[in-house]
Target: Aspartate aminotransferase
Amino acid sequence: MLLRNACAGRIVKSGAVRSLSTSWWKHVEPAPKDPILGVTEAFLADPSPEKVNVGVGAYRDDNGKPVVLECVREAERRIAGNLNMEYLPMGGSVNMVEETLKLAYGENSDLIKEKRIAAVQALSGTGACRLFADFQKRFSPHSQIYIPVPTWANHHNIWRDAHVPQNTFHYYHPESRGLDFASMMEDIKSAPNGSFFLLHACAHNPTGVDPTEEQWREISHQFKVKGHFAFFDMAYQGFASGDPERDAKSIRIFLEDGHLIGCAQSYAKNMGLYGQRVGCLSVVCDNEKQAVAVKSQLQQLARPMYSNPPVHGALVVSIILGDPELKKLWLKEVKGMADRIIGMRSALKENLEKLGSPLSWEHITKQIGMFCYSGMTPEQVDRLTKEFHIYMTRNGRISMAGVTTGNVGYLANAIHEVTKSA
Ligand code: LMR
Model:
């Protein structure tokens, strides 16, 4: 029997076919571990009963257990048996998107009334950022993105994979463990007019350092002077102060000043819908016609990537936010989560002080949101893991959501041990 050799196009006798390629993927090296999710993998592999995970930003109750909010349980009870499995439109759930915009832009937002916001359901905050980065590349192909130093590690991956060049701006001041406002403003002023900036709307990840209201006003003013575009990643609305309205202040200040912003929203943290991947991308436009065009382009970007977003989590969100009683319950539960974290901040600081730590730990309670940017070095973090089975990212970020009354003493003692001779 004669066969055609696929690679060389030669006719050869059966049994004598010699493959030219022995392996398609031999050049592929293992990817480096993700600096955040890799910590969870290492934690899970550790058999020690003492182990503590303060790596990933995922809320735990005071027993260290994942939490499903009561409002979510109730929404699921209402869905049970009533959900068909039809596709959502490319732009996702219209109800969910409408409710989500109210959280960011305000219940009585004129922009919403005037239909000036192009918005689509996104695969949580990451998906919203990625969709925006792809949109930026397609419609502002020569622009770059200014990213704060430091930022959530995945921001770099997102804009890199969308082929948008990255630049940085000063944000964190290591000595004061606070905001480097002067350098940040300098960078905003010296960036070319009309630059794109990535801003964390609240509860900055990883530092827990947010500008004050007054500072946001100055930032917004300077953005106006320079004609910059602000893209807000709002992954923690409600987690900073316990009140989603208050946590949207930065965005509201920019809107008052007439900025046409972009915004990524996520329900991973504030509704505990981590694995459901529910979020929203919105872009404020000049008018309704432009918003229709922008939305159609966002949908067109989504279509070849994932076609349309998943339905279940979006329905949970729209049921909760569409029912005044359930929304009230949600607000109470968000506040409960934020308050537990605030309590753990004080407990960690007090424990370190009681141990006689020679260092100042004021920043633990000054910082806000899910994370404490402790100031520990990568080597100190490595010691925490090796000697105490405590898992956290090597930049010294502690996920305060993983701290409990049961482990705070152990954690403080371990931190004291690795930092006391620093
Ligand atoms: C984090 O920063 O830990 C979270 O946002 C989870 C993630 O996907 O990185």
